[in-house]
Specification:
Strand content: 35-45%
Helix content: under 10%
CATH superfamily of the largest domain: TolB, C-terminal domain
CATH architecture of the largest domain: 6 Propeller
Largest sheet: 8 strands, mixed
Structural class: mainly beta
Radius of gyration: 24 Å
Length: about 550
């Protein structure tokens, strides 16, 4: 009986598809009246740069009308069209879409929108899709969780195929909520865009770090007397079995009279180095007055980058006092690394963020080693809830720092990752409604500039709006409801690895200790009341 909502949702999806006309049979209106403005569409896909292997950019027309038509035209005159007469959703035939993109690589596609109203066709001003030469990695992974101001119950890690609309489960904590098995999942990470080596953290019940290498799975508990706060934000060395972690003691607070909703505050944090072959862990940084967090490796594995903030204000009187949460700022620093003896050099300041009035989080180096991508807000490090948060770049060759203005918005833009070719960035943004984060994609050109960002395409464009907690029906399984809230990029997956991509669940023994993954099980996602968090690109 629990599958009935899902079956009904599938049937409704099929019906909706039937109501949307087949692209190949759509005729472009011959007689029309020109409209001196562009049509209002959702999502905003106007004048963007897109990958040549992206899923169809289906959209809905928000301009009133009885019928709707969209015609895509390549530079060589190849056309693809879609129509709708029951609603305004325009969905393009997947195979014809691939064909159109293949002939348009490195060129432009013109998008022409028509609406039929008051017994006549109207033609709106066209807009353009520039098809990049460089492909995007075919998969992205992310965490879906309830909004941060709500009690978490069911959450999981998922993969989405960017070349189509398939979403699959990597791991879920509870299909049906159970207090006995209640546990949180976060901070998943891969080695160098591959699923051969992956880790994620389990918190509360069954706590520990889950480390997978091929089909070998182990659970490690880093928290003990010498490491009281355990392992948090991870980064896998690009070639070796070594992992960086921050070790964070955090606290959560909720604003009452503030446009921000949630605050996560570091009260103590250090850096750890873990040798997965020798099963040995050691401190890189272990200080009381400094907060070290969000480590990452250089692509060559010979350098590490991380954020560091000072817990204390040093007054001119010589006194020392704790900083207020909204005055704490994090700089970005680096250390060299010697693989021969696993030693680290002295700390070097890469970006003195405090001096320019910003605070940094999540440094990530481009695959070619030239650009340092990070999030910056006015203070702190939990920028996913900070409206001031924007994406920034440091050009490591030119020694210049600047915001990615073309991709940023007036709301929180944060948690980002590079594609394996360095031409695409995926990040989370709250620009749609200020409360929920969704995945956005931007093209990053060889000159270090971003393009206008666009939301992750969905088969039904209303999907991103429908995945809201408030739309969940009372009395139903939360997995059959809908929501989306916070995204965080990290890594990509290879085509040959996609069938393995950890479509598994944790299995517990009688002592409720994690023992293994079910390697053969495939658990497909039903939409639920969740937000996106910690998103990663994978090849």
């Amino acid at each position: 009986m629990k599958t009935i909502p899902y079956i009904l949702s599938v049937l409704m999806y099929v019906i909706i598809g039937m109501l949307t006309a087949c692209s190949s049979k759509t005729d472009e209106p011959a007689n029309f009246t020109e409209v001196g403005q562009a049509a209002s569409i959702y999502p905003d896909y106007k004048d963007i740069i897109i990958p040549p292997n992206i899923a169809p950019l289906n959209f809905l027309v928000r301009t009133s009308g009885e019928k709707f038509v969209a015609v895509l035209t390549s530079s060589e005159g190849k056309k693809l069209s879609a129509s709708a007469s029951h609603g305004s959703t325009l969905q393009f035939n997947a195979e014809q879409w691939k064909s159109l993109l293949s002939v348009s690589r490195g060129k432009e596609i013109q998008v022409q929108v028509y609406t039929y109203t008051e017994k006549k066709w109207l033609r709106f001003q066209p807009f353009t899709w520039h098809v990049a030469k460089e492909e995007i990695d075919p998969f992205v992974s992310y965490r879906l969780i309830e909004p941060g101001y709500s009690y978490y119950r069911q959450l999981g890690l998922y993969q989405r195929n960017l070349t189509n609309f398939q979403e699959e489960v990597i791991y879920e904590n509870n299909r049906t909520f159970d207090y006995e098995d209640n546990h949180c999942i976060n901070c998943h990470n891969y080695q160098n865009y591959s699923t051969q080596k992956m880790l994620f953290h389990v918190r509360t019940n069954h706590s520990g770090t889950i480390l997978t290498q091929g089909k070998d799975v182990e659970k490690i508990n880093f928290q003990h007397d010498s490491i009281p706060f355990g392992a948090v934000y991870p980064a896998w060395h690009p070639t070796q079995n070594w992992i960086l972690f921050s070790s964070n003691k955090t606290g959560q607070a909720f604003h009452i009279l503030n446009e921000e909703k949630v605050e996560v505050i570091d009260m103590a944090s250090d850096l750890l180095f873990y040798d997965a072959n020798q099963k040995e862990v050691k401190y890189i940084c272990h200080t009381d007055s400094l907060l070290e967090t969000f480590p990452c490796w250089s692509p060559a594995g010979d350098k590490i980058y991380y954020c560091v903030g000072s817990l204390y204000d040093h007054q001119s009187t010589g006194t020392v006092r704790p900083k207020d949460f909204n005055t704490l700022r994090y700089n970005i620093v680096s250390r060299t690394f010697q693989s021969s003896d696993q030693s680290f050099g002295e700390e070097v300041t890469e970006i003195n963020c405090d001096s320019i009035g910003i605070s940094a989080s999540v440094p990530r180096i481009s695959p070619d080693g030239r650009y340092l991508l990070f999030t910056a807000g006015y203070y702190g490090q939990f920028h996913i809830w900070h409206k001031s948060a924007d994406l920034y770049i440091k050009d490591l060759e030119a020694d210049s720092v600047y915001p990615l203005q073309e991709a940023n918005s007036t709301d929180a833009d944060s948690y980002h990752c590079w594609s394996s070719n360095g031409r695409w960035i995926v990040f989370s943004s709250r620009r749609d409604d200020g409360s929920y984060t969704r995945l956005y994609i931007t093209y990053f050109n060889p000159k270090g500039k971003a393009s206008k960002a666009f939301i992750l395409p969905q088969q039904d464009p209303e999907h991103n709006m429908k995945r809201l907690k408030k739309l969940q029906c009372a009395g139903t399984d939360s997995r059959s409801g809908t929501d989306i809230s916070s995204a965080v990029p990290t890594n990509y997956l290879s085509d040959e690895r996609k069938s393995y991509y950890l479509q598994k669940r944790l299995i517990y023994d009688s002592k409720t200790i994690l023992t293994t993954f079910d390697l053969d099980s495939r658990i497909f996602c039903r939409t639920g009341t969740r937000r996106i968090n910690f998103t990663l690109f994978i090849r």
